[in-house]
## 1
Amino acid sequence: GLKETDVVLDISLKVAELLRSKGVKVVLTRTTDIDLDLPPRVQLANSIGADVFVSIHANAARGKKSDVNGIETFYYTGYRGMQLSTYIQNELLRVSSKLTDRGVRRAGFYVIRRTSMPAALVEAGFVTGDLDSEMLSIEDHRSRIAIAIADGILIYLQGSI
C-alpha cells in the first residue's frame, strides 16, 4: 500500500530545509510530486557545478517480498563518492537501531554514473517490506531519515572544504 512517492518527496524537502538552515545552497530537481526523467536531473546538477549529488529513493522488492527490508547507499566510482555514501549510510544507521544495514555498494545507476561530482543514491527502506513500510509511514521516522541524510552530507562537505 505504501508508495515511494508517499515518502521520498517528504524526506527530500526535509533534507533541503535542514541543509539550508546550515548555510548550504540546495537545488532540488523537483519540489512537487511530478515525474521527472533522469537526464534532466543529471544535466541540472552538472550545469550548476554542484559539489555533491544525492538522489533519495525508497526501494521495492520484486514480487513484493515483505521480508526484505533495509537501507543501502550506492555510489558509482571513486573514493569521494564512496566517502559521501559511507557518511550518509553511517548516519542513517545511527538514527535507528531498527534499520537493517544493506551496506554501501557500487552500482551503475544513471544519476550517479552520469554526474560529474561525487554522488550517492540513498534507498531509505523498502516500501514493500513489513518493517520498513511501517516505519516509512511514520512522519517522525521520515524526519530522522532526513536528519541523517543531511548530517551525512554535512560531514562530507566539512571534510572536503
Note: The CA atoms of residues 68 and 143 lie 22 Å apart.
## 2
Amino acid sequence: IVAYAQVKQAAARANAEIGVLDAEIADLIDRACQDIIEGRLHDQFVVGVIQGGAGTSSNMNFNEVIANRALEIAGRPFGDYDYVSPNDHVNRSQSTNDTYPSAVKLGLVHATHKLIAEHEFLQYAFKRKGEEFKEVLKVGRTQLQDAVPMTLGQEFHGFATTSGEDIERFRDVLPLLLELNLGATAIGTGINAKPEYGPAVIRHLRAITGYSELVIARDLIEATSDTGVFMSLSSVMKRAAMKLSKISNDLRLLSSGPQAG
C-alpha cells in the first residue's frame, strides 16, 4: 500500500512538471498520497491481493481512494470526479501494467531491506556465540555419527558465514527490483504518456523513496511482461529459509546422542 502510494505521488509530481496536470490538482493528489504513505486510509484498500486482471482492481482502488481523499482535502464532496478524476487525473500517464509491478517491486525492496537487517542481526549473534564458545570442545558429525573433534565456536562461526552469504544474495537481487517500467503504460509502448514522463517520474520516485539506484528498464516492452525478478527473489528467499531450517536441525542434532550430545 505504501509503495503504490509512492508511485502515485511520483506520477502526480511528474505530470505537473511536464505540464499535463494542473498544479493545484497535482498538489491535492500529492497530499492524499502522503496521507497513505504515513499510514492513514489503509482500511480503504479492500481489494484482495489475489485477483484477476493483472492488478487493475488494486490500481482502481488506489485511484478512487486518492481522488476522494484529494476531494476531501479540497472541501468538495466525494465523487466529484469532474474536479479530481480517478482515471483522468490520478491515473494520468499510467496503466495498471506499469504502476502495479513497479509498486510490487518497491514493496519488495522495502521488505527485503528489513529482512537483510534481521539477517545481519542473526549473523552478529552467531559471531558473538562463536567467540563465546571458541574453547568448547565437541565432536563433529558425519553421516549422523560421532566423528572428529572441533569446537562449538567453529560451528557457530560457520553459521555466521552462511548467514552472511544469504545477505549477499539478497543484496544482489535488489538492483533487479529497482529496475521499473514506469512510463511503459499498457504494453510497453508508452501510449498516452509523453516521452518526458518516464525520466521525470523515476527522478521524483528516487526522491520520495530515497532509493537513488532506481532506473527505467532499457526495454519497456520486455520489462512490462517479464516476471524473472520475482522468481530470482523467490529463489533467494527459499535458499535462506532452507538454510535457516538446516541450522535449526543442526542445533537439535547437537543436543542428541549417542555419546556426545
Note: The mean pLDDT is 95.
## 3
Amino acid sequence: MTGKPILSIGEAMVELSPSGQDGLWRLGIAGDTLNTAWYLRRLLPADWRVAYCSRVGLGEFSQQMVDFLAAEGIDATHVTRDPQREIALYAISLKDGERSFSYWRDTSAARGLADDPAALAAALAGAGIAYFSGITLGILPPAGRAALIAALKGARDAGTQVVFDPNLRPKLWPDIPTMCREIEAAAAVADLVLPSFDDERGFFGDADPQATVARYLARGAGQVVVKAGGDAIRYGGREGAGLVEGLPREVPVDTTSAGDSFNAGYLAARLDGADIPAAIRRAHDLSRVVIRHRGALVREAVARG
C-alpha cells in the first residue's frame, strides 16, 4: 500500500559521537526529527515518500546534510537555504549508556525554518503525516513557533495527520513555564502525541503515565502513547486505551535515538496495519536494537534481509 507523503519538520545538525576508541570521534548528520525520518525511510516500502523540512546554510557542512538526505532517500525539496547562517553542531558524551550533549546552535539556520509561511504551507500541502517535536518548537523564535502551529493546524484541518513528540529540552527555552505552555499548545493541534514519561513527570508533575495521557487529551490531542524507558506503555484516546506490559528490557550502550526510533517504529507499524498494542511492541523492539549501538542512526537496526 502506498500512502501520502510523510513530512518531518525540524533541525538537522552535524553530530560528533564517540567512536569507541580514545580520542577519535565519528562525524554524522542527525537531529531528533531527522532521526525519525531516517528510520521511517528504512522501515517503509520504497514507494512511500519521506521528506524533511528544515533550513540550512550555503557552506560545506550544510551541503553535506543535503547530500546525506539525498543519499538516504529522504526528499530534501523543502530544505531551504540561508545566506547568513549555517547548520548547527552537537557532540555526544556517554556514561554507563546514558548520553549528554554539548550544542553549538545559537546561529543555526534552522531557526528560520518557519519564517516563510508560503513555503511552509507548500511543504505541508498534501502530506499524509506531518511530524514535529518540542525541539522543533524550542529552536524557533516566538513568531516562528506561532507560524508553525498555525500551519500545522491548517494542514490538520485539510486532512493531514499531525504527530508530535514533546521532547522536552529546557535549555532551548527562555524558562520552563514558557516551554510547558508552548508544548501543550502544540499538542492541541496533534492527532497523536508521543511523550516520554520521565520528562513529563519532571516538568509537568504527572503522577503516572495515565496522568500524562489524560492531560494531553484534555488539551485537545487525539491519541497519546507514553514512552516509559522500557517499562509498561500506557496509551489512550479516540482510537482506544490500554497498557502494554511485559516489554523486554535492554542494557543500553547509547540511548541517543531511543525515542526517535520508537516513534518511527510505531508510525511504520500503524501504517502497515498493526493495531496500537502490536505497533508499540514493534517500536519497542526496534528501540532495543538501536540502544545497543553508538550514535543516532543505527543501520544494523533496520538492515533488510
Note: The chain has ten helices and 13 strands.
## 4
Amino acid sequence: REDNIPYHSLHYRQDGPMATVTLSRPEISNRVGPEMAAELRDVCQAVQEHETIRLVVLTGAGNQFSVGREPMPENVAGSPDYQGSDRLRNLQAASAIAAIQVPVIVAINGDAMDHGLELAIAGDIRVAVSNAKFGVTDLAGGVFPWDGATQRLPRLIGPGWARDMILTSRIIDAEQALAVGLVSRVVDSERLMEETLTLAEIILAGGPIAARYAKEAVSQGIDLTLDQGLRLEADLNVLLQSTTDRAEGLGSFLEKRPPKYTGT
C-alpha cells in the first residue's frame, strides 16, 4: 500500500492494482477550488504513469461528494490575472479524470452538485448512496457550467434530460438518477464501499489490457459513426490478440483455472 503522496485537498491511497482518490475538504462539502483542481490533475497524471494501477476509485470525505465550487476571495477572483481562460484552467479537472486510461468507479457518498457532478460524470461507473441529490444549478446563479456538464451530461443521459437539468437547475434524487442513467447503482450509505469494492474486484479479475481497450472503444466510439466505431473496435481487437494476456485468457479457459494476467 502506498499512502505517501502528499496532498492538501485530496487523500490518495493505493492498494495493489487499485488507487483510491478521496476529495478531502469535508468542512466545505468538498467544493472544488484551484488547489483541489490542481491536485486532481496531478494525481490523475500520477495514476496514468503508474504501470501497476489497473483501476481508480473516486469518492468524497464526509457525507457529501462535492456540492460545487469553492467561493473565490474578491481580491483573487477580481484580479487581472484571474479572469477568463485563466480562471477556467485553474478550476478544470474533469478532463483529467476522463483521460485516465484504466476504469474509474465514482463512489458518490452524498450530494453531487454543479462542479461536483461534473467530476462525477467524468468517471466510467457511478455508484450512489440512496440519499444523494444531483443537479447542475449554475444557471440559477447566473453562471455557466465550465468543466464538461454541457458536453458529458447529454452523452450520458441524452440531450433531453441534460437540457432539462441544466436549463431549469432541476435537482433529482438518486432513484431518478438511476432511472435516467446518471448512476448505475444505488445503495444504502453503509454499503457504498462494499458495492464499490465488489465492482472493482469484478473488473480487476478481467484482463487489464482488454479493460483499457474496451474503455477506449466506448469513449471514442461515441463521437464516431457506427462504421467508424466498428472499425475502431476491430482494430483494438487485433491489437489485443498479440498480447500475453490474451494467450493467458485462452489458456486458463482451456485448462479450467483462474487466469493470471500481467498487463502485457
Note: The CA atoms of residues 82 and 192 lie 38 Å apart.
